[in-house]
Structure formats: structure tokens, C-alpha cells
Amino acid sequence: RAQHNMAEGGSCSVTSVPLCEDTAPTVAADSASGACACSDSGTQQLDKRKMPLPLPPHKRQAEEAQLQAAPTGSRGSPNDHETFSAFQQLTSVQRAIIRRFIGMLNTEEDSVVITNPLQQHGPIVYVTNAWQDMCGYSNERAIGQNPRLTQGEGSCPETIHSMGRALSKGHACRVRLINYRGYNNEPFWNCLSVQPILFNRKPVLFAATLKDYSYRLTRLVSLAPAQFCKAGDCLQYRVHLCDIGGARSLSQARQIDVTASHLDIEDLTEVEQAEVEQAGGGESDEESSSTGKQAPPQLLSKHVKRLGFGGLELEPEYLLDRLRHECAELGMPCQFQELEVGGTELMRMEVCSEASSSSGSENQSSADGDYGDYGGHSSLRAVLHVLPEDAEGTYAISLMRLVGDTFQFHAMYRKLRDRLSDIVSTPPLRPMKGK
Questions:
Q1: Domain 2-14+298-419: what homologous superfamily?
Q2: How far apart are CA 32 and CA 35, in angstroms?
Q3: What's the distance, CA 103 to chain centroid?
Q4: Which GO terms describe its cellular component (predicted)?
Q5: 173, 230 in Cβ contact below 8 A?
Q6: Measured in whole angstroms, how far is the alpha carbon of residue 79 from the centre of its chain?
Q7: What are the residues whose beta carbons fall under 8 Å from the beta carbon of 177, sequence distance 6 or more?
Q8: pLDDT at 433 over 80
């Protein structure tokens, strides 16, 4: 019934079976640290006891300051990357695309790395200053190297192999992986989106946007966060480079189509302009639209009266993990699924709240925002969804009562709202029209 209300009769496919943290079957995966396991949904879970804790903020800041002050760690001028041989070996088309791409970024805030799949080992050809600060490698140490230089003993091999398979097919993917900073080998949780950049319908570059989720994930003490690589059909839609408004759009996992009309030909030398024209110029916008360009995922309609939280610019997997953690802290058992509805990724979690058999005391405790004794019969079942609000990476959490007392359901909502206060700083869930 919840799926029918969410999709309004649309098609729905389950991409992973319901999981309960205590009962999910696992298969051991070979790892250098022996701390990685593969669940039946294809994600990787790490034993947090074997993962070193991040450095205290004051110590990390001191080491970052040393990195930036060191002669070999200075980040240099914005165009220093063009002096490296790995960049000079790029084709004129690749260089023109990178220059266009860089113009959309804030190099001090957007952590982005660009690699060249046309060269052996896919070397790094450009990194922003924010990437250098996050990963701890300067231009001199990063450009020309493979991105695996940030991997270590806690990085899950199965996740890395899955990402390699996706990129070999030219697929966009969304990844969560443990990486290591170059200046002190400190592990951190890296959430990245990888976008293939296509010219003449072939990948000529890969761009990845990185986000450090260490602070958020290490606080979820009731569960072990998973490492994973997702490259499903819902991520394989194309957008034109000219339709991307800025860095926020670039952070979404999808394929980016480039044509000659998107490039600043005037900024190229005569030789480079001739090479771009000889390359064929790519498809026109009309041709691309008629040769397999997929539409963006359909945005699902949300019920006007449904409780929830909107405007969350966070990774959907983190939002699901956060809900699981808070439910565990509140003593509410839950099961979750990852679904695809109308080409849109949707995360569904069903929560049960148990109360004592005394209805009078139950209603009173619910009105006060307390869940009472969990040793009795099941009195409330609710479903929570994590779903996109737009195509730019904004998500919402929607709550709906399936069975049970309305007062207790509202008490659950208030309890979750209070526990999510650090991320719920925007107005409540707003109605949104589906496309």
C-alpha cells in the first residue's frame, strides 16, 4: 500500500531484498585487513573495531598546515596542472573539456579529480585545491598517478572491483569507500560520484566529486557502515554539459555529453581548433536526444499531509543509515529495502514500535512523546522513505503510518525530528509535483 501511494500506480522493482542488521546473511570477502564482508545486497561492511579512528581536529589542522606550508605540498597557481606531462599528453578535445569543466568549480570548496581513461592506468590529470586538502596529496604527488594512491588496507577490494567494472563500461556510479590521506595515512570515509564525460558517445574523461563523511558515519555507533559501489540503471542517464548549472549539478552520478558547441573554441590554438573539428565535433544536441539519451529519473509525488523532512543535501545512503541508527537507539526494530520506482532510486524502511498492553497508559505516554515499555504487543507500524526532491542531489524523508495509534505516530515523528536536529534545519517536507 505504501509503494502504491508513493508511485501512484507506477512500476516498482526491488533492487535489494529486505535486510535486518541482525539477520542479514554475509559472505566473507578477501581483504588485506580481513575486516571486509560482502552482504547479499552487494555492499561491503567494515568491522569498525579494525578501523583506526580519525585524528582529533586540532591535530589534523596542524598537519594540514604543515602540508600547505611545505615547498613540495604547495598547491601552486590555478593553471599549474597544465605544466605536467600527464596533462600535456591529453588530446585537444580533452584539454578543452577540462578547461570548460574547471570554470564551473570552486577549486577551494569542490573536491574534484579528473582522470584520463585513454591512457594506460587512467592517470590523474587535474585535482582541485579542495581535493588536495581532503586527500593529502599535492599536484606534484597526484597528477600522473592512478587514483588508487588513496586506497589502503581498509579499502574493500570488492567495492574497488565493482567500480572498475562500472567504469570499464562507461557507467556512472556512486561509491562509498575508505580512503587514506597522503600526509598522515589517516583513514576517512569517502563518498564519491563518478561521471563519465562522453564525446562522440565515447568516454574521454572521468570526473569524480568527493565528500568526506567521516564525522557523520563514525557517529553511527549502532551499526557498521557499508562500503559499496552502485551503478544501476537509474544512474545511467545523460545530461549535456551546457545544461549543467554549477558544481552542485556536477556532484551527481550521471553521464555527461559534450559536443563541440559546448567548448570555448576561441580559447584554443589554431592547431587545437583543427584537431577538435577533425574529431567530428561530437553529436549535436538534437542527435544526442534521438540516439539513446535517457530522461532524468522521475520525481515521485508526495502526499500533501504526509509528515517528513525536506531540503536535505546529503547522500541518500547516509540518510538511510542515520534513520537505522536512530531507530536502534530508540529501541524500534526496522527492516529496509532499496527500490527503483519509475527509474527513481527509493529507499524504504518499515519501523515497528511496541508498547505495553494498557491502552490508557500507552496513549498518555505517546502524547508526552515517550514510547513506553517495548516488551508488549506491537502497536505501531510506520514506513519511512528516502527519496529525491530534485535532480540536483536534494532528498527528503517521508513518514507514513500503516497501523497503530495516531498520537503515537506523531510522537515518533517528534522523537525522530529531535534526534535529527543537526541535519533537519530546513522547513518540513513540501509538496512536489512528479514529472
A1: Kinase associated domain 1, KA1 (3.30.310.80)
A2: 8
A3: 23
A4: nucleus
A5: yes
A6: 29
A7: 151, 155, 156, 159, 160, 163, 189, 190, 192, 227, 229
A8: no
**Domain map (residue ranges) of the chain:** 2-14+298-419, 79-289
Could you read off the pLDDT of 274-328 as tens digits, one per residue? 666 666 544 444 444 433 445 555 665 555 457 999 999 999 999 999 999 999 9
pLDDT: which is higher, 65 or 229: 229
The pLDDT-based confidence of 217 (bands split at 50, 70, 90) is: very high
Report which of residues 63 and 307 the model is more confident about: 307
For residue 356, the one-letter residue type is S
Element (H, E) at 14: strand 12-19
Report how far residue 249's alpha carbon sits from residue 245's, in angstroms, rounded to the nearest whole number: 6
Least confident of 171-180, 277-286, 397-406: 277-286
Instruction: Quote the CA–CA distance of 330 and 317 in Å, as a whole number.
Output: 20
Give the whole-angstrom CA distance, residue 240 versus residue 289.
10
Burial class of residue 156, CB neighbours in 10 A (0-12, 13-18, 19+)? buried
Burial environment of residue 180 by CB neighbours within 10 A (0 to 12, 13 to 18, 19 or more): buried
Grid-cell match 588513496, residue found: 150
Q: Superfamily assignment of 79-289 in CATH?
A: PAS domain (3.30.450.20)
Q: Which helix (DSSP H) or strand (DSSP E) does residue 365 occupy?
A: helix 359-367
Give the three cell numbers for residue 81. 596542472
b/e map 376-398, b = 16+ CB within 10 Å: eeebbebbbbbbbbebebebbbb
User: CA-to-CA distance for 192 and 135, rounded, in angstroms?
Assistant: 13
**pLDDT tens figures, 114-126:** 999 999 899 999 9
